[in-house]
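Sorry to interrupt, but I need a hand with the structure work. Go ahead and set the record down below:
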Amino acid sequence: MSFQDIITSDIRERLSRPTGDGGTCLPNACYTDAEWLKLENERLFARTWMYAGCLDQLAQPGDAFPTTIGGKPVLLVHGRDGEIRAFHNVCRHRGAVLVDKPCKGLAALTCPYHAWAYGLDGSLRTRLHFDGAGKHDLSGQGPGLVPIPMAMWFRAIFINLDGKAEPFEDYIAPLGARLPHHDLGALRLHKTVEWEFRANWKLVFENYFDNYHIGTIHPKLDAFAPMVDRRGFEPLGKFLHTELYFDAPEDGRGVGLPYYPNLPPGEDRFEAGYHLFPSCCYQVWLDQLTIFQVFPIAPDHTVEHLHVFLIGEAATDPAYGEAAQGVCDMWDELNREDVDAIEWMQKGRQSPAFDGGMLSGWWDQSHQHFARLVVEAMS
């Protein structure tokens, strides 16, 4: 189905109505149609800033980290000159993927197919046997790897596949303005946990910024930060956010681990969640940051990475091992509680009795705002 077949004038009109007064979300085909996912890769993920990784995943010169963004193979490289660069992860000869797993201590990027070698800066170095057996091209004259525009925010790496997105400083400014007291540069990656959902990537994110389900799905979270103290995530430009203050820390949330340095009084009771459209989610607690990153595999299949960051040495020092495991256990429990709900919604998207939803003006602003952003970005 084409974009126009799915986003009809009727859908646009319903999307424009107020939340809770006839407003709706995306139609079913946006969650089930393979052509729509292809359009998302081309028009949504390629055109925007996307979280691609963090400095901890390629901490030393010579390190390389492959990933997939918007269905495209991407390679992050830490050069010997100290620069972090992003490239399309394909050899210019026959299009083979250059690096298929994280590597350390590389002197060059060598294609496993015909051994063409590139410098860590992406420049072509050598082409063995290029002019016949034993006749090597050592001139370095030829096309290098294709670079991808990138930016770093503290230790996070963002890329823009088509190179035409707004300036990164403008993109990230709303988040920076909400976290003036949190030194994100003090964070280090502790662990990445992978999850799979038999559901569309948008439902994984939509569940993240749905505070309405906390009372029914997450009893421990509701006891810690009650639903009665919350409302739905609210629009923040192209982002969505929720912020609240809780009474006291507990295991997995503020016990046994160092806090962000120099927090003002009261800010050690601050919890916040941010969805950075369309790329990822930042969940901030007083002693941690968790970044949610999704990889759409098919319309009904999503891989999610939860990147758990802790403050300084707590990320790696065994002395903090028990408390750090408590953080991971807390996130594991929350995700396990969410799996069924997310997959129930995917199954429901097959029904003609549902096509966008009846929304709560209190809870569902975020869902409608997200739907509008998707349509706007893809138009």
User: Anything to note?
Assistant: Residues 321-348 form the longest helix (28 residues).
